[in-house]
């Protein structure tokens, strides 16, 4: 099974593109999580009766974590199966 060391230059480019795409997607998810948490925390501080704000922040953080783990699993499964480094027939 070809890997990053034995793959063609085109396949190596596809692997690097996949790595950068996953990195950018996870970075956006983390930023979204932090923004949602700060937004909800601000709502809770300025409106002490709004307990829903903390639940929203927790839900956003949990959803972001689940999505990041799923994306990482898909990426590593793709790399392990060598789908990004297959030789043309």
From TrEMBL:
Membrane spanning residue stretches: 17-39, 51-72
Q: Does the keyword Membrane apply?
A: yes
**The entry's keywords:** Membrane, Transmembrane, Transmembrane helix
Name of the protein this chain belongs to? Uncharacterized protein
Species annotation: Rhodovibrio salinarum
